[in-house]
Write a structure and sequence with these properties.
Number of helices: 15
Helix content: 25-40%
Radius of gyration: 27 Å
Shape: flat
Strand content: 5-15%
Distance between the termini: 58 Å
Number of strands: 17
Structural class: alpha/beta
Largest sheet: 5 strands, parallel
Strand order of the largest sheet: 10-9-13-16-17
């Protein structure tokens, strides 16, 4: 009976071998599943799945095969209903002093406490610091504040939870997942197709042409050569640094490293700004005043043939985007609104895209007014594998 799970995995397109299946059986025999369905799930995934891209296929197969089994460690549905729709709304400010004490708790401590609370809790709790609830400073729940903890239901607000209970996140492992340096480099390889053939002898092996000619030649090898490519793409990369982008600093660092290692550009220039384009931009992400450069210098010295990539969350106070004479980052009085600077950027550089690490949440915030404005003004794409590929395709077309 259990072997039919193996065949289901294969039917779902997963490349699971007999050797891996035998390894799984041996792991079960040693008790490595921790005698729980959740433990068994993670054990199967660790042994049988070779790449994160297949996590979602595995998840679908697992749910299909074990859908009728009721796991003993599943969160109570009633508890999840409380957390998604609390009866009491908490408007009082968070007890920040109490919340800071949570920093002393390790991940192991929090997970142990969470299991204990689930067994003990019998009713809804909101605005507290002990039980699983909402609007408080407990390390379990949602819509509150804690520098670390487990989010249960709700939506991410501060990005501080190390684990999300009761939430399927497997889609994050497909080709729309957040990028690391390696994935950035793979995506940037698509730039090769935009390199021009130079007027030179045919010295570069044409793989596809060789295969075609060899096939047409009855299997006898027929080598085909083509002219070498020359990098012609010039890129101006403008990255938001500091403030709300601090949470995405590792992601942006991966992008920076991948772009710097890429050999697909004829020229690459990277500068930094805070929130939006102002009279000064910076050669360093710390935006030290000694590294400041007049933005007008960019317009006068970097030609319009450059392709422009802006990386930022497009979030700031609306007045910062639209108001003239705004006192901006670095103590510079801006006589022209940042929106006007962006308009000049669009007029100068016809090929321009915006990569955004966030997807606009559905709940209201004045910060998302600027997100909406900039999304209408620019071709904006999610900072993901798929998003980057779409942005590059848009960026490098001839029109």
């Amino acid at each position: 009976m259990f072997s039919s799970f193996f065949y289901l995995l294969r039917a779902k397109g997963l490349d699971t071998s007999l050797n891996e299946w035998i390894t799984l059986i041996e792991a079960l025999d040693k008790g490595l599943s921790d005698s729980s369905l959740t433990g068994f799930y993670y054990l199967c995934r660790a042994v049988l799945i070779k790449t994160e891209v297949d996590f979602d296929k595995f998840d679908e197969a697992f749910l299909e095969f074990f859908k009728d089994i009721k796991p003993s460690d599943k969160l109570l549905e009633e508890l999840l209903k409380w957390l998604e729709h609390p009866k009491e709304k908490i408007d009082k400010p968070f007890d920040m002093e109490r919340a800071e004490l949570n920093k002393k708790l390790s991940t192991t401590d929090i997970e142990k406490m969470f299991k204990e609370r689930i067994k003990e809790q019998k009713e809804e709790h909101n605005g507290g610091s002990y039980w699983v609830g909402t609007g408080g400073v407990s390390v379990f729940g949602n819509s509150g504040y804690s520098p670390n903890g487990i989010r249960v239901g709700g939506q991410s607000r501060h990005g501080s939870a190390f684990y999300v209970a009761g939430d399927r996140k497997f889609r994050d492992f497909r080709n729309d997942n957040k990028l690391d340096t390696r994935q950035f480099q793979v995506a940037l390889r698509h730039l090769r197709q935009f390199s021009n053939r130079i007027d030179a002898p045919k010295t570069e092996l044409d793989i596809n042409g060789t295969i075609q000619k060899t096939s047409n030649n009855g299997g006898y090898l027929k080598l085909v050569y083509e002219k070498p490519r020359k990098n012609t793409v010039k890129v101006l990369l403008l990255m938001d640094s500091g403030g709300s982008m601090q949470y995405y600093s590792n992601l942006c660092s991966s992008l920076f490293q991948a772009v710097n290692k890429s050999n697909h550009f004829k020229d690459l220039k990277i500068y930094y700004f805070h929130n939006c384009i102002h009279p000064k931009i910076y050669a360093d992400p710390t935006m030290n005043s000694e590294q400041a450069i007049d933005t007008n210098w960019i317009f006068h010295n970097i030609s319009s043939e450059y392709k422009v990539i802006i990386v930022g969350d497009a979030m700031m106070e609306p007045s910062e985007l639209t108001r003239d004479n705004y006192y901006n980052y670095g103590g510079v009085t801006d006589k022209m609104s940042p929106m006007n600077w962006l308009t000049r950027l669009k007029e100068k550089y016809k090929h321009i895209v915006w990569l955004n690490p966030i997807v606009r949440p559905i709940y209201y915030s004045s910060l998302y007014e600027t997100y909406d404005i900039l999304e209408k003004e620019f071709d904006m794409y999610k900072l993901s594998v798929k998003g980057l590929e779409m942005a590059l395709k848009k960026l490098l077309v001839s029109r």
